[in-house]
Amino acid sequence: MAATGRIMLKALNPLSKLLVCAVWLAASVLVFDERFQMALIVLTGSALIVLNRTSPLLLLALMVPFGLFGFAFLTTSLLFRQDSDFAMRMASEALLTSPAVSAGLTLFLRAVACGMISVFFALTTDPGSLVRALMVHGRLPPRIGYSLFAAMLLVPDLAAEAQQMRIARAMKTGRRLRRVPGPGELMSLVVPLLAFAIRRAGRTAIALEARGLSPDGPRTVLHAPGFTRSDAVFIITAIVAITLCGAATVSDIDVPLSLPQVAHDEPV
Amino acid sequence: MRSDPQPPRTGAAAEWHEVTVQYPFAKRPAVGPVSLGVRRGERVLLLGPSGSGKSTLLLTLTGLVPNSIPATVSGDIRLFGAVVGTRQPWAWAAQVAQYFQDADQTLCGMRVEDEIAFALENRALPPMRIAERVTEAMDRVGVPESWRSRPSSALSGGERQLVALAATLVQDASLFVADEPTAHLAPLAADRLHALLTECGPDRSVLVVDHRLEGLIQQIDRMIVLGRDGGIIAEGHPRTVFRAKHDLLVSEGIWRPAASALDARLEEAGIAPQVAPLSVEEALAHVDPATAPREHVEKALPAVEAFVAECTVRSVQTAPDAPVLARLVKAACAPFLGPTVLRSIDLAIREGEILGVLGANGAGKSTLGLCLSGLLPLKAGRRTGAPGGYAFQRPENQFTAGTVRDEILDTLPKQMAAKAKAERVAGTLAAWGLSGLEHRHPFELSQGQKRRLALATLTTSDRWPLLVLDEPTAGLDAHGVSMLMSAILALHGRGYAVAVITHDMDFALRLCPRSIIVGEGGILADGPTQDLMRNTALLQRAGLAEPSCVKALQWLQRAASC
Questions:
Q1: Cβ distance B226 to B53 under 8 Å?
Q2: Measured at the alpha carbon of residue B133, what is the angle toward residues B131 and B137, in degrees to the nearest 5?
Q3: Across the A/B interface, how many CB contacts are shorter than 8 Å?
Q4: How far apart are CA A103 and CA A81, in angstroms?
Q5: Hey, what domains does chain B have and what are their CATH numbers?
Q6: Searching chain B, which residue's CA lies closest to the CA of residue A160?
Q7: Chain A interface, best mutation among B96, B101, B102, B108, by max A CB count within 10 A
Q8: Do A153 and B108 touch (CB under 8 A)?
Q9: Contacts of B295 by beta carbon, 8 Å cutoff, 6+ apart
Q10: Alpha-helix residue ranges (DSSP H) falling in B286-329
Q11: Cβ distance A224 to A135 under 8 Å?
C-alpha cells in the first residue's frame, strides 16, 4: 500500500498538490487554534510517513528549522507580550493555561504546520515536472521555465565553484580548509561567485537560444503531467479533510477565526 | 583574403563577406575584415591562435553576436543564401546545430532525456517522433539507457559532454558548428567525438574549431587559418596548408598535427613523401624498413630520430636517491564532502621531478592532485612532506585581488620591505611576460596570461616547493603551450617538483620523465612515461591513446632491427 501511495503521490499533477498545499497553508494562517494546527501536522506528516515512506527521523530533522522559527514566536509571545506580565502570572496561575502561552504555542505549531506542508510538497514533487506543468497548464513562459531549469543546474555548480575558491584561499593563507566557512570567508566569496553566476547565466541564455528556444510560437512539452481522476480524488479528499478539521475547531471554540486580542496601554 | 573561390551567394551553407566584429569598449576589431564560406556537404576546420576571434566568428553565424552579445557587426553574413539578420538566432536552430566548448553552455539542467529532446520540443515535433530521435541520438553517441532519467547536473564533466553532443546531434541540422569540442576530453573520448562530428552526409556541412588535430584532420576537406589580427592567413586542403605554410603556422603559434613537424624534417632530408602526410604513419609509409630501399631508410633515419627526440622527454630523469618532497601512504582520496574515489594510493614525488598524472575523465586525477598537494584532507592513510601549490583548471578560481600586481603582492611575506616587494613584483612580471599588465584585473587577461599569472603567484614566494598543475594546456594555442613548457622546465631547473595533470599525451611525453595512470579507483601504473605510452593495452584500459610519435618510435625500432 505504501509503495502504491508513494507512486500515487509522485504521480499526481504538481499543480494539484500546489493547490492543496496553498489551501492548507491559507487555512493554517487563518485558523488560529493549536488543535487545528496539530491536526494539519498529523495529517500531513502521516501522509508522508505512510504513503511516501518518508523516514520519521528525516521528517523530524527537516522540521528543526521550522521548529526553531516557531520557538522564536513562542518566546516572543511569552516574554514581550505587553499585557502578559509574565513573571507575575508565573507565580499565580498554571503556565500552560495562560493566554500568552496558548497564543505562543499556536504560533509555534503554525510555523511547524506550514513547514510540514512545504516539506510535503517538496518531497513528493519533481521540480522538473512542476515547471513543465506550469508551462503547459499555468501559462508560464518557456523562457522563464527553462531559466528555472538552468538555475537548478547552477546551484550544485555554484557550490563546486565556491569549494575550489575556498581551497585556493586556504592554500594562499596557509590555513587548513574548514568544513564550514566562517562569515568572513563567506563574504569574500560573494563577489567572485556572483561574477561566476552572471557569466554562467549569460552563457546559458545563449545556449537556450542556440537550441531554438523562442519566446512564442508552438512547442511540444514532453512529459508534462496531465490531470487524472487521482488528482480529483486527492483534491476532494484534502479539501474535505481540512474542512472537517476546520469545522470541528470552529464549533468547539468561543472566538472563531480570529487572532488573539492584544491589549495596548493607552498613552498617558 | 577570401577563402571561398566561388562567388558568394551560390548556395553555400554559410558565408561571411567582409565581416568585421568589434566589441563595445574594445580598441580594435575582434575579427576581420574577413570573408569565408562553408559549402554544402563540406567539412571545414577553422584554426587560429588564441584571441584571433574564432569563437566570435562562430557566434555571428546565427546572429547570437550581436543579438544576444552586444557588438558592432559590419559586412554580410548568410546562411543557406539568406541574410542571417532576417531571422532571430533561435529561428536558425533547425538548420544550424551549435556545440559549445563547455558542456554547461549547451545543457539546461534537465534530465538527460529532456536535455536531448529540448531542441526538438522547440520545433514542436510530435512526441512520438521526438522519442524515436532521442533514442537514436543516445545510441549514436553511446549514452547508456540508464542515464535517461538522471539529471544532467549529476553527471561528471566527460559524461555531460557526451550528453551535450547527443543533444546537438539530435537536431540533425544541415550545418553542424563545434567550438573546441574536445578541450577537456580524455583521448579515447575525443577520438569518438571526432568520428561523430565528421560523419559524412551529402547535405551535412561541418565547421569545427579545435586544437586537437590528431584523428580529426584526416576527415577535414578544407581548413581556414586566422591570424592574430583576425584575418585569414592560409586556406586550403590540410595536406597543402600544413606543408606549404608550415613556417607561417609555426611563427603564428598555431597547432599542427605531429605529422607536419615530421614532414618538415623529412623534407629537409630530401625524403619527404610525395603527398603531404596527415599522420605519422602516412609520413613514414614510403620509407617502411620492410619494403623501402635501404638507402631511403638510411636517409630518413636522422630526420625521424630528430623528430622523436623533439617529441620525447626534454627534462632530466630525477635521481632515484633524490629526497622525497611529498608522499601519500595508503591514502584514500575524496573530493571535499564527497565519496571516496581513490583507495590505497601510495605515491611519492621527489625534489626536482616532473610527474605526469594521466587518466580518463572522472578518474579522480584532480582529487589526487589536491590530496598530493595537501589541500584536501585524506579519508584514510597519511600524507607527509612539504606543502604544495595548486594551479586550478580554471585559473580564475585562485585570483583574489583586484589587479595583477596585488595578486602577486599577496603571496609575498608581510614582513618584507616595501622596496623589496616592489622589486620582486617587477621581476616576477617580467619573468612571466606580464609586464605592462600590472594594473589590469586578473579576469581581463587572456587565457594564456591567466595561466602564467597563476603560476607566477605560486612561484614568487618559494612557499610551495611542490606544484600541481591541473590541465595547464586547456585553451592554449601552440605558442602558449610552448611558453608553458619552458616555464615548467625552468621551475624544474630551480628544484621544484611539478605534477602535471593532463589529457595531452604528447605534452606528457615531452615533459614528464615519469607518469602515473589513474583509473579504476586507484593508480593503474607508475613508471617512465615512454614505457607507459608503448603499452597499448594499458592505455586502452585507462581510456587513453598513444601519443602521435609512438609510431615513429616503432619505425625506429624496426629500422634498427632490419
A1: yes
A2: 120
A3: 149
A4: 10
A5: 14-246 (3.40.50.300), 258-311 (no CATH), 324-550 (3.40.50.300)
A6: B336
A7: B108
A8: yes
A9: none
A10: 294-311
A11: yes
Chain B residues with beta carbon closer than 8 angstroms to that of A159: none
pLDDT tens for each residue of A110-155: 999 999 999 999 999 988 889 889 988 888 888 888 888 888 777 8
The ranges assigned to domains in chain A are 2-129+226-252, 142-210
- % of chain B residues with pLDDT over 90: 15
Place of cell 495529517: A43
Interface test with B, best of A157, A171, A187 (most B CBs within 10 A): A171
Summarize pLDDT for A31-58 with one digit per residue, the tens: 888 888 999 999 999 999 988 888 999 9
Q: List the beta bridge partners of residue B232.
A: B226
Contacts of B457 in chain A (CB under 8 A): 172
DSSP string, A183-214: HHHHHHHHHHHHHHHHHHHHHHHHHHHHTT--
**B499 touches B470 (CB < 8 A):** no
Task: Please report, rounded to a whole number, the percentage of residues in chain A having pLDDT higher than 90.
Answer: 24
pLDDT tens by residue, B370-389: 999 988 889 999 999 888 88
DSSP string covering B181-228: TTTT--HHHHHHHHHHHT---TT-EEEEE-S--TTTGGG-SEEEEE-T
Q: Which residues of A touch B93 (CB under 8 A)?
A: 210-212
For chain A, positions 98-157, list CB contacts with chain B under 8 A: 128, 146, 149-154, 156-157
CA distance B463 to B455: 13
CB contact (8 A) between residue A171 and residue B62: no
| Contacts A173 to B, Cβ<8 Å | none
Q: Which residue has the cell 558548428?
A: B177
> What average pLDDT does the structure give for chain B?
85
Q: Is a pLDDT exceeding 90 seen at residue B485?
A: no
Closest C-alpha among B241, B467, B493 to residue B374 = B467
pTM of structure: 0.77
Please give the pLDDT value at position B484.
84
| Residues of A (154-213) whose Cβ lies below 8 Å from B | 154, 156-157, 161, 163-165, 167-172, 174, 176-177, 179, 188, 192, 195, 200, 202-213
The predicted complex's ipTM stands at 0.75
Contact assignment for A210 to B93 by CB distance below 8 Å? yes
